[in-house]
Design brief:
158 residues; 63% helix; de novo design (two linked rop proteins); mainly alpha; elongated
């Protein structure tokens, strides 16, 4: 009998990724050791969080573990970028493996019940409401400087 956490495809993919990371980690020494250690931890975190999430009955708990696993998959992709830049990992091989990591992240997003998104949503931060021009010169659409607005506001409070 197979335990429930071993059934999802994403779990099997993550175990295959851990095996590949262990294989590659053997050759990483010297200046690459910190990245190697982080890569090993992040890759192991994916299947471990999938297994733990599958053991939870509350939907919010399951989602949290799947989101952590998804974050670890994205972290592995970033570590691979670091290793490619450091000439410790072949770019083509990394790209091929990052495709698998992206697939895992998408699967984990679906398991967690949320949309897969790597970018931040500008609406969350009130995009469009703020003037992103940090200088205090006259903005053509406002007719006076931001500093003048601030001074006017202060003087009206006094």
């Amino acid at each position: 009998m197979t335990p429930g956490h071993e059934k999802p495809d994403v779990y099997r993919l993550s175990i295959a990724d851990v095996a590949w990371v262990y294989e590659k980690a053997d050759s990483l020494t010297g200046v690459h050791r910190p990245a190697r250690d982080q890569w090993l931890r992040a890759s192991q975190s994916i299947p471990l969080n999938i297994a733990e999430g599958n053991g939870k009955t509350a939907e919010a708990d399951r989602r949290r573990y799947f989101e952590i696993a998804r974050g670890s998959a994205l972290e592995c992709a970033a570590i691979q970028d670091v290793l490619v830049v450091g000439k410790a990992l072949d770019k083509a091989e990394s790209r091929e493996r990052k495709t698998e990591l992206d697939r895992m992240a998408a699967m984990l997003s679906r398991l967690g019940g949320r949309g897969y998104c790597v970018k931040e949503d500008p609406v969350t931060y009130g995009a469009g409401k703020n003037d992103f021009d940090p200088d205090s010169d006259l903005d053509p659409d406002k007719g006076k400087s931001q500093q003048s607005d601030a001074l006017d506001a202060r003087s009206s409070r006094q």
